[in-house]
């Protein structure tokens, strides 16, 4: 299914097309799945879900007694929740706030709920992530990134030559990514718009970049293509990639 020209090997463009197809497939599935999830957490059917309503359903899915939890939340009583579940809840609450479009009312409609469950669908969430990245890397406060700012991410402590080589390779890859992919107009500056375009899951350059990386992992004969034997030899890598499971991968990234 990936080898469109039937030459018994897979090139970067074939891999890119397949990843894009899987991405689109995931987006359609997510929209359908969201409708079902929304109905489940909006039992009164008023078209809005409050954080407390969602919290009750979430904790019920984790084995807590739904009626007890609902009663305690209603009466502002303390919930006895283990640390791990509480941490997940805190992260979900952050995402809830981010998905709540202006004017914020802490109620999510179906579209906002989609952004909450699937942040990769949301332009607002994408903008939020871009702002976070700019905030972390932008050293002079101009809301743009230069190459030196972009490659200033901490890459670990260099303790020996091998670590130094890994760091050098990392810088080389990031430089190439900045100059050839993210900086669309090649002016040496990456704007928030360029970064947002680059981070969009539907960006074909991302898919091509990923395809090339996947090929590089298993391309033992260095012909820039993958033969069946190479894919089988590195099967664990491929079954964990976007080639197979776009949904899981994109969630982990976001």
From TrEMBL:
GO terms for biological process: calcium-ion regulated exocytosis. Signal peptide: none annotated. It is found in: Golgi apparatus lumen. It comes from the Eukaryota. Keywords: Calcium, Glycoprotein, Golgi apparatus, Metal-binding, Repeat, Signal. It holds the Pfam family EF-hand_8. CDD domains: EFh_CREC_cab45. One of its GO terms (molecular function) is calcium ion binding. PROSITE patterns: EF_HAND_1 (PS00018), EF_HAND_2 (PS50222). One of its GO terms (cellular component) is endoplasmic reticulum. InterPro entries: CAB45_EFh, EF-hand-dom_pair, EF_Hand_1_Ca_BS, EF_hand_dom. Residues 29-64, 125-160, 170-205 form the EF-hand domain. Belongs to the CREC family. This is 45 kDa calcium-binding protein. It comes from Ramphastos sulfuratus.
């Amino acid at each position: 299914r990936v080898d469109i020209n039937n030459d018994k090997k897979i090139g970067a463009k074939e891999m890119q097309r397949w990843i894009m197809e899987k991405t689109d497939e995931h987006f359609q599935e997510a929209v359908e799945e969201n409708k079902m999830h929304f109905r489940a957490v909006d039992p009164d059917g008023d078209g809005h879900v409050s954080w407390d309503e969602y919290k009750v359903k979430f904790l019920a899915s984790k084995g807590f007694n739904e009626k007890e939890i609902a009663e305690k939340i209603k009466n502002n009583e303390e919930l006895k929740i283990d640390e791990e579940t509480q941490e997940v809840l805190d992260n979900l609450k952050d995402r809830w706030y981010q998905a709540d479009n202006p004017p914020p009312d802490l109620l999510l409609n179906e579209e906002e709920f989609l952004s909450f469950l699937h942040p990769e669908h949301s332009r607002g969430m994408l903008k939020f992530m871009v702002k976070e990245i700019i905030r972390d890397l932008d050293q002079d406060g101009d809301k743009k990134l230069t190459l030196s700012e972009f490659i200033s991410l901490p890459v670990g402590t260099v303790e020996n030559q091998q670590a130094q080589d890994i760091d050098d390779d990392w810088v080389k890859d990031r430089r190439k990514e900045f100059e050839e992919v993210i900086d669309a107009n090649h002016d040496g500056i990456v704007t928030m718009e360029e970064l947002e375009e680059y981070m969009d899951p539907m960006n074909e350059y991302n898919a091509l970049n990923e395809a090339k990386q996947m090929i590089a992992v298993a391309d033992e004969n260095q012909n820039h293509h993958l033969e069946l034997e190479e894919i089988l030899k590195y099967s664990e890598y491929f079954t964990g990639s976007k080639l197979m499971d776009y949904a899981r991968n994109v969630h982990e990234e976001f």
